[in-house]
Design brief:
With 300 residues, the protein is an alpha+beta fold. 40% of the residues lie in helices and 15% in strands. The chain has ten helices and eleven strands. The strands form three sheets. Strands 2-9-4-7-10 form a five-stranded antiparallel sheet, with helices on one face. A hairpin with a 4-residue loop joins strand 5 and strand 6. The radius of gyration is 23 Å and the shape is elongated.
């Protein structure tokens, strides 16, 4: 599965000296100029899910890749990223300027009682990219400048004020029509299938019996990809000729065979490591896939 990138890991990748972090969700808020972070040239960031929200004002040519689509944009753009949707970001031009802020959901708990994830720019399948004209760009840049200034102040209620500035960014976006220029891959189904197969393979080999795999069903993988399970199933079937369930079952059976042949784990341990609640369920699954019992494999 794509590793979940923490705020700490993000800081380590982006900055030579990590900004200080507080265990308090409110104080985990931070804001930066893009020029403050490391220049990553034109290399695309890894496809990953992050455990924080990010709002970015950026100038230049870029492309953002999701499981089922890529969005290309140029000029001044306001972007929203959320923990529910994995993505990777690609710079197409030589330089980028702008700002970004990061925060955990707890930063907004007091202001949005239903959760910030319910806002249109942060819902899975929502619209995360907004093209800005000169007036909107000035408005958004001014808000980021205010946040930068406030972060360095000793004002007692500065986080309340920062929440207000972020709220203005959100409302600014919600008043605009989102802008998407889709970059169509030669075969979107193949792209989704490729990511699915990579997620499946990353669960193996299993090294410890006490750490069961986390994704065993098509819906588990669809959730990680940020696509509907029917979309995933259709893409995999069209690309490979086999169902998502069949791929998962075949890989689990192959791992089970390897564990039976090359470890001294008992059947219960192997069952648990593959996510089965009871050894009898594992035995039934294994016989269906291989036509033999787990015990017969161990005796070979």
């Amino acid at each position: 599965m794509p590793a979940i990138q923490s705020l700490e890991a993000f800081y380590a990748r982006k900055f030579d000296k990590n900004p200080s972090l507080s265990a308090n969700g409110v104080e985990a808020f931070n804001v930066f100029r893009l020029t403050d972070s490391r220049n990553s040239s034109t290399a695309a960031s890894p496809y990953a899910r992050y455990d924080f929200y990010k709002i970015m004002l950026i100038n230049g040519q870029h492309r953002c890749h999701y499981a089922d689509k890529s969005i290309a944009f140029a000029g001044s753009t306001l972007l929203f990223f959320n923990p529910a949707v994995p993505y990777r970001f690609e710079r197409l031009g030589k330089q980028s300027t702008g700002f970004f802020c990061v925060f955990k959901e707890s930063f907004y708990t007091e202001s949005f009682r239903k959760g910030i994830h319910d806002l249109p720019m942060f819902t899975p399948g929502g619209k995360p990219v907004y093209a800005l004209n000169e007036t909107r760009e000035l408005e958004v840049a001014t808000l980021f400048e205010k946040m930068l200034n406030e972060m360095h102040s000793d004002y007692r209620f500065k986080y309340d004020l920062l929440r207000n500035y972020v709220s203005e960014l959100l409302h600014c976006a919600m008043k605009m029509e989102p802008h998407e220029q889709l970059y169509h891959h030669p075969d979107t189904n193949a792209r989704i299938t490729s990511i699915f197969m990579a997620l499946l393979e990353r669960q193996f080999p299993i090294d410890l019996p006490g750490q069961p795999i986390q994704m065993r069903s098509p819906s588990d993988f669809a959730d990680k990809l940020g696509v509907h399970v029917n979309h995933l199933n259709r893409a995999v079937r069209l690309t490979t000729g086999k169902t998502t369930t069949a791929h998962i079952a075949e890989r689990m059976a192959a791992e089970a065979t390897a564990l039976l042949k090359h470890t001294n784990w008992n059947i219960s341990e192997i069952s648990y490591s593959l996510g089965f609640a009871h050894p009898s369920y594992f035995t039934s699954f294994f016989k269906k896939q291989t036509k033999v019992t787990p015990t017969s494999i161990r005796l070979v």
